[in-house]
Amino acid sequence: MHFTSEQRLDDGVLEREFTLGEIPGILWTPAPAPAPAPASAPAPLILISPPPLGLRKVYPRLAGRARYYAAEYGFAAATIELPGSGDRPRWAAAEQARADLRRVMEAGEPVGDEIIDALILPLVEKAVPEWQAALDALLALPEIGGPVGYEGGVISIGIRLAVVEPRIVAAGFFAGSLVPAAMFEEARQVTIPLHVLLQWDDEGNDRQAALDLFDAFGTQQKTLHANMGGHTGVPQFELDAGARFFARHLK
Amino acid sequence: MHFTSEQRLDDGVLEREFTLGEIPGILWTPAPAPAPAPASAPAPLILISPPPLGLRKVYPRLAGRARYYAAEYGFAAATIELPGSGDRPRWAAAEQARADLRRVMEAGEPVGDEIIDALILPLVEKAVPEWQAALDALLALPEIGGPVGYEGGVISIGIRLAVVEPRIVAAGFFAGSLVPAAMFEEARQVTIPLHVLLQWDDEGNDRQAALDLFDAFGTQQKTLHANMGGHTGVPQFELDAGARFFARHLK
Question: What is the ipTM of this complex?
Answer without folding.
Answer: 0.90
